[in-house]
Amino acid sequence: MFNLLTNTVDTTAAAEVVAEAAGTVQGLQFHTSDIGEALLCSAAGMVGIFVVVGIIILSVSLLNKAGADKK
Amino acid sequence: MAILSELGSKILSIFEAIAGMDIQTEVIPMLIMWAIGGTLIYLAIAKDMEPTLLLPMGFGTILVNLPLALTEGVISEHGAIEVLYNAGVANELFPLLLFIGIGAMIDFGPLLSNPKLMIFGAAAQFGIFFTLSIASLFFPINEAASIAIIGAADGPTSIFVASELGSNYIGAIIVAAYSYMALVPIVQPPVIKLLTTKKERKIRMKYEGKAVSKRTRILFPIVVSIIAGVVSPQSAVLIGFLMFGNLVRECGVLDSLSETAQKVLANLITILLGITVARNMNAEDFLTWETALILGLGLVAFIFDTAGGVLFAKFLNIFLPEGKKFNPMIGAAGISAFPMSSRVVHKLGLEEDNQNFLLMHATGVNVSGQVASVIAGGMILSFFGQG
Q1: Do A42 and B132 touch (CB under 8 A)?
Q2: pLDDT for residue A25 is more than 80
Q3: Where are the domains of chain B?
């Protein structure tokens, strides 16, 4: 793509446009630019849920134990 | 006389505008949306599929697709649905209020008497994150996250997260979330059967109905709110409202408020929510390939939620001795669709062995899925929210 500010042709941007057009179906665009971040967040999310749930399980077990001791 | 003349010319201009509608780009999409609205109403009434939400939503879909709805009608700037949308959905108030009602309805007893079952609630959120990865191939990452939350199998969480992330596809997301929740009895059994052997489905689990002290029941919502708030601050508001409703239920001194939250508040918000979220169901936004893909991704989310729970139970069974093994089907109940999912698992257990009663175990997993799905929503917000 021609950059008016630098008077140069940005071949990367042009390539992106071609690639986007090739992967476009009625407005949908197939792209892999976010997959790395998505996979990382997915892994972190699953670990995060297990950590939070683990803490809740531990807390409930302690609450139950305290309740049983009281009896 | 002048008023009548003005009114007459106004009506005339409306008729002219309707007559000037383009058949291909305006009339046909409008008729398709009426058909979709009609289908939602039909499914709600004839098939009893999530009628509390699908019926208002179906009717709202017809309303917002009436001729000139955008300029003169219900979704114009000062139209009733637009006002309700800004008052309750755009600022996430309705889903939060609904959470108070849901919290007041849930009995966490089965979970509290066997807390380790909660681990399956965590595992069954796998579909959310799997879908996030797949959706990120087609949508910007924030939209992918909004779509992935369909896998929470929890309407208010889906609405809250999608609104918070500023999704452009909130209508499709909500339709997918509620439709698949209603379709749990159809979606889950084939996945469960595919991933388990007959022998595994016959595993019996001893139920030790341990009594849960009142103190534990009261402290549970407080402790969970604090833990979620500290570890995952973005989920604090969601968990907080859910747990507040549960505290009202369990405290024992607010029976009247508990009953109001369970019935009046939940019903009132559901009516308003259903008809209001239809604001995003106008033809221009809804009749797109993106909507079709979102509906497909929603199914993927539900399938992989189910698979995540079942496979995690099978994984744990590797390390457990005979007699202590889990029936892997209960893992599938870790999705938040309560109580359908636990009923599905119970029914499948009885199909294999008419003396295998899995309901209490599955219910424990199912309510833990409710908590875990909200935590998952908080995780999504902490990654992609704007702070």
Answers
A1: yes
A2: no
A3: 20-384
In chain A, where the domains are located: 1-31, 34-71
Q: Scanning the structure block, which residue is given the tokens 């979709």? A: B36
Residues B170 and B277: their CA atoms lie apart, in Å, by 8
Torsion of CA B290, A39, B157, B85, to 10 degrees: -40
Place of tokens 């995540």: B308
Main-chain dihedrals φ then ψ at residue A3, nearest 5 degrees: -95, 115
A vs B, Cβ pairs < 8 A, gives: 131
Whole-angstrom distance, CA of residue B6 vs CA of residue B13:
11
C-alpha to C-alpha distance for B271 and B248, rounded to whole angstroms: 22
The answer to whether B155 and B265 are in contact (CB under 8 A) is no
For residue A25, the one-letter residue type is: V
Q: Is B236 on the interface with A (CB under 8 A)?
A: no
Per residue in B189-226, pLDDT tens? Answer: 999 999 999 999 999 988 777 788 888 999 999 999 99
| ipTM computed for the complex | 0.83
B233 has a chain A CB within 8 A of its CB: no
